[in-house]
Amino acid sequence: MPERDVPWRRGVAVVFHYLLAITSVLVALAGTKILQPNSLRSPLFLLAIILSSWFGGLGPGIVAGLVSTIFLDYFFLPPYNQFKLHPDNLPLLVVFFVSAVLVSYWSALRRRSETELRRARDEQEAKVQERTAELRQANEQLQAEIAERLRVEATLRERASLLDLTHDTIFVRDMNDRVTYWNRGASELYGWKDDETRGEVIHTLLRTVFPKPIEQINAQLHETDRWEGELIHTKRDGTQVIVASRWSLLRDGARKAVAILESNNDITGRKRAQQALQKTQAELAHVARVATMGELTSSIAHEVNQPLAAIVTNGNACLRWLSNSTPNVDEAKQSVSRIVRDGHRASEVVGRVRAFFKKAEPEKTEIDVNKLIEDVISMVDGEVRGHRVHVRTELTPDLPPALADRIQVQQVLLNLVINGIEAMSAVNGLRELRIKSRSDDKGSVQVSVEDTGTGFSSEDADKLFQAFFTTKQNGLGMGLSISRTTIEAYGGRLWATRSENGGAVFEFTLPTNGMNA
What we know:
- The chain is of the alpha+beta class.
- The chain folds into 4 domains: 124 residues, no CATH class; 101 residues, Beta-Lactamase (2-Layer Sandwich); 94 residues; 155 residues, Histidine kinase-like ATPase, C-terminal domain (Heat Shock Protein 90, 2-Layer Sandwich).
- It contains 15 helices and 12 strands.
- It has a 5-stranded antiparallel sheet, with helices on both faces. Strands 7-9-10-12-11 form a 5-stranded mixed sheet.
- The chain is elongated.
- The two termini are 66 Å apart.
């Protein structure tokens, strides 16, 4: 209803109630005249007053009482048919009017009370009905959720029962990580039966060791509905097992997560085999480093002889300065300082050689790749001079440190450099070895070794990194294979291409702390 129509309707209702009051009094007057024309009777007037106040309220009831009092005085009290108030009639009229007012008040009050009571009861019933409807709707939703959950669990059980035929470990857990299904493969691997694991928190039962915080794993699971990784579990007998784990998040029709299906494959044997292989490769790398010692003998001797010769020269000079009739102490001090400097230099050469040939476990540390390249160039100085090779470096300054084992990376780079030098031994023209370093677009450190040798054929390109394949007459064919495995173990890559000048280009990358994912 428009708001502008409300006052108008209220006004019509008020006028109607007052007209009803006057009409009821007129009807009472007519009825009294007909029934008792010559005597005073007020019950019909009281009835009119009660009806007026009942339907119209206190105002129309008082109006009906006032009009009824006037009619009583005019028609039924002497002097008749005159608007003249006789003193003897005053008490009677006052009592009648007061009675009319009281009757109007009580009737209106009772009507209002009944109306308010009825309204309150209706409102309460409406609220009860609304609340009942809400409860009914909530109950229906809850029943639907329960039915959906039971249907999902039944479907999972039906499907999972088929998985008892596989030897893979498969179990289902709810969103609180409590086991709801445990297949036969899980019982065989971990040692617990299905009824023993039901309701147990899986990560507590298996004492799971995660590769990263569980919060990150769960975040990825809820974002992509799946997760894969390696976990370490503890079996019932206390032994540990390494598994390749795959998690799948199961959702209901409303896309609400209801369960997690986890399948695990025992890869303990494979991991141990990989560790044994890495250990064997480390042994082979050590053997290769020792075998390289003979080839580097001249370089090592040259590096050590240089500081030793300088020490002897500076020692003789110091003796001469001190043997003068007037010893030159300042010059002697400078000679001694140079002797100390060259002694440290010789010590560093010996220490570097010992570290290279030392058999030790790999240790991932931060490596200054440019410094590593300079050290390798110093180590092969004898080979470079013996083969009349010109070494040119293009090293990018301020490279981020690479993360790997320094000795192993040094062995890889040394192997590539020596291969390049040997590849140019039969070349009569320019013998140039280019060593470059830079950062690639992923944030890794990239090193390239390019020679101007004979290169390799397209048929041999796919075989270069295979074990026991070699293009050298007396080669073992293990250097490049071990080098690639070493680089890949630290998350890098090693590959080879043919250069424009006909030689070969070997490149490898190593990760850094700041590299892109």
